[in-house]
Amino acid sequence: MRSTRARLLVAGLLPLALLTACGDDSSKADKSASSSSSPASPQTVAPDQASPISNVSVSTAKPNAPTVTVAKPPFRAAKTTTKINKAGAGAAVGDKDIAYVSYVAVNGTTGKTIESTFGKPNASFNLADKQTFPGLLKALKGQKVGTEMTVAVPPADGFGAQGAKQLGIGANDTMVFYMKVNDRYPLLTEVKGTQAASESGLPKVSVPAGPVKQATITFDKGSKPPTTLKSQTLIKGDGPKVLAGQQLLVNYTGQIWGGKVFDAAAKQGQPAAFQIGAGKVIPGWDKTLVGQTVGSRLLLSIPPADGYGKQGNPQGGIKGTDTLVFVVDILGAM
Predict the structure, then answer these.
(1) Which is nearest to 76 in space by CA: 42, 124, 37?
(2) Which of 97, 247, 269, 278 falls 20 to 30 Å from 15 in CA-CA distance?
(3) What is the pLDDT along the chain (334 residues), one digit of tens a residue?
(4) Sign of the C-alpha dihedral, residues 265, 271, 277, 280?
């Protein structure tokens, strides 16, 4: 039997394949790629041998299925290069934000499209995570929501010397992207706002100000738990909606109705990350957190059928008849 925390906080989803790739040593790679005096190598292209970004054309005749064409392949970039196709007018992406984007990714050597996320849920980039595809972090920082751009990323700022064989990308391949910045939102350290009073029949909640604080959940004497799944929004966040399959970052406290706290992110000293809406956590979380907005605080009352079932979770001290109460702060969705 897995522990309570293992069951709740399995980190299931990796973002789309392209979003997690980086070189073996990005700091060294960046340095070699930016040095014009370094001799050309598979990872560094001399500026006079680099392809002009004008060799890449984009058609948006079908907005949900744009196409990217590379003229005269192979296309090779000496450094990460960005061309603004259309300037946005929204908020600028900061270095502690999550950027929500659509993109088409092309192998510059072959001109072959590797992946397109247009017409699908947003892909996301955490700009605070420097291990995420370095070239795209550089290109996204400071761009405004609504911006459409073409980006060329050399191996040193992308997959590095190892390439990505599963995607058909070699160590020498420059990646070309067409990207649209759809939204941005800061990666929160805590949820702020005026908290609503708990609804009748649900326990009272108090959460100290500050990052990753444990909630105090207070039950009325003799109160009985609801027999069905209950969810109340105590603070409504103004961030993006949570989608099934996303990776969430949360602060949470879990307590048995009328009993002990059995788990809390504060006990680990950091927020918890897990995939939502994909059967990786207890059903009560999948059912209630999908569709909520980032920046929200939720109070959940979860009956056994939507928790650990009739078997309970002995390691967590949870019986098969226990109703669970959670206070969940949604800090980020990626």
Answers:
(1) 42
(2) 269
(3) 223 333 343 322 223 334 433 333 333 333 333 333 333 444 567 777 899 999 999 999 999 999 999 998 999 999 999 999 999 999 999 999 999 999 999 999 999 999 999 999 889 899 988 777 899 999 999 999 999 999 999 999 998 888 888 888 999 999 999 999 999 999 999 999 999 999 999 999 999 999 999 999 999 999 999 999 999 999 999 999 999 999 999 999 999 999 999 999 999 999 999 999 999 999 999 999 999 999 999 999 999 999 999 999 998 899 999 999 999 999 999 8
(4) negative
Contacts of 235 (CB under 8 A, 6+ apart): 191, 192, 193, 194, 195, 196, 295, 296, 297
CB 265 within 8 A of CB 272: yes
Q: What angle do CA 40, 41, 45 make, to 5 degrees?
A: 55
- Neighbour-count burial of 227, counting CB atoms closer than 10 A to its CB (0-12 exposed, 13-18 middle, 19+ buried): exposed
259-265 contacts at long range (C-beta below 8 A, 24 or more positions apart) = 259/322, 260/317, 261/214, 261/217, 262/4, 262/316, 262/317, 262/318, 262/324, 263/4, 263/5, 263/8, 263/316, 264/214, 264/215, 265/212, 265/214
* HSE-up of residue 78 (Cα within 13 Å, Cβ side): 15
What are the structure tokens assigned to 209, written together? 């100000």
Q: Would you state the structure tokens that stand for residue 322, as one six-digit string?
A: 């226990």
According to DSSP, the β-strands at 297-302 and 148-153 are unpaired
Phi/psi at 70 (5° precision): -105, 115
Task: Specify whether the CB–CB gap between 78 and 52 falls below 8 A.
Answer: no
Beta-bridged to residue 98, according to DSSP, are 126, 185
d(CA 329, CA 251): 5
The CA radius of gyration of the chain, in Å to the nearest whole number, is 23
Structure tokens at 208: 């100290």
